């Protein structure tokens, strides 16, 4: 019995294996089934070669035209070429391989035939050559369509038509109609770039190209960014994913397929993002964080923010600020901002209950009262420990969201830290020890003779000596770091003239608003009517340039090149060897020097309430680059408002400082973002020194800076030169 069962079991196993093998063979046969994708031409005379494209073809193939055998000229896995038989009749073309007959399509015996198109792909506006026969007619020109849409025939012969690809024609066959007959050729693949995203970025930015007619293989598409080839990561018929190359430059993106180039939008190269502040640097779930900086995207989805590797969605995005809500549970770690695959690393963030969002004022002196705003503070003042750059401060009052503290006696610039119940939190920015002192002069002081109706000019040398023009006296005073004032060059009596020499032997004849700046070797350069005078550190005066007409303010750029402004219009650039170049400047004010940074001249417009930007390379001007209408408002670009500007100076690090006379304010402009903010706004009055919230000033004249970042300005209303220290 056991032997009988064993035999039955073995028989069943054999049957199963046989069935499985049959199924595999059947699948294999199905996989090899030939498939036709297109054929061309679909008409012609005896002997016309017809190309049949597809897949799965082999050498064991035969063809017939309406049942008449046809010669097979060549075969490959993807194409079979056959010859229309002599004496054949119109009808169906069929292929046969083994026992399988494959229908191809109809073939018409006629003179009209479309044999080939070249190229078989391209963009709107491209010209393609349609080769064939029978294109001539006595009754009218040949009609050509691509995918059913009529194309313009550029030129025609009996065997060749050149046509222009219509806009948005799509992919489809090329057909020619002559004298009521129609012939169809191969399929034309229409290609177009609809959009690229993002439109900005830099090297390494992954760009998605949307469109149609792309090759499905990566190797079939060549992508260029302004002529620089990019890496293609993915490819589909309607999209490409590419990586911007290392040498990417601003310019059009293009895709080349089968030697046919398709133009796309301009990809604009922008620098990587810059993080300036992150507020707060610690906090619990639900805390709203603000990141300020430059070169963020205004599209939320193009900005990615992570804390400790956790992605946090951006809720609001501008070019200079990102806003997001802390989800909690991120843990402590680095904040990283990625904009279109350009990455910048920010400060550490702490996932905790205690955090500082802001403090006011942002600068001051020992004894200044500071309000710290945040969350998680102990409501008992004594249980909050506050330090300014390590120096402990007195906490006057406390709530869970606010602390009032007094800046310590040994105050120095640095971070504010709050410790509560053993948890520490840092403020988003440093507190700066800052204030104003009178360096020289003052009401009733005779060491200086500054007039309230002339903006004057200032310069600071490498040793901290300050030079100031006494316009009405046509001379220059020197102020030592300790405030001692001496006559540097010019007449002791205020006599005018034009005489070179040393010290008081030299004479000047200043115009209304003479300019002055200093070079890297501590040589002063002064505009004196139609000349530019040079004064060495030893007080030796010579003529640097003459015959300029009326010249006003002047300034050096960061490379030591001197720029001199004309009266309302025009100007000159002086290289270090004295080579002179004329500048086409318009609408100049004579009360303020320009700031020259990275081949741009930032100059005061003659309306004196906004700053223009002049591109030296292109001689083009951007009006109202910063400031729009008269008034007082911080903001970006023309949204900001100034009163009457009397001075401009660059700090050499991307910021321009402005003396806003009418508003009694020192303002600053971020060159990258064009954002205008206020450094200090004085109360009107005598030259009262102290913290910014206590200091007073009269009217403001010229402004300059030293290498340490200290600001100097002429207090015209108080006959004084004042110094602002920010550290």
From TrEMBL:
Where the record annotates domain IPT/TIG, the positions are: 33-110, 111-191, 272-350, 353-434
The lineage's top-level taxon is Bacteria
InterPro entries, alphabetized: 6-blade_b-propeller_TolB-like, Fibrocystin, Ig-like_fold, Ig_E-set, IPT_dom
Q: Lineage of the native species?
A: Bacteria, Pseudomonadati, Bacteroidota, Sphingobacteriia, Sphingobacteriales
Query: What name is this protein filed under?
Result: IPT/TIG domain-containing protein
Query: Which keywords annotate this record?
Result: Signal
What is the scientific name of the source organism? Mucilaginibacter pineti
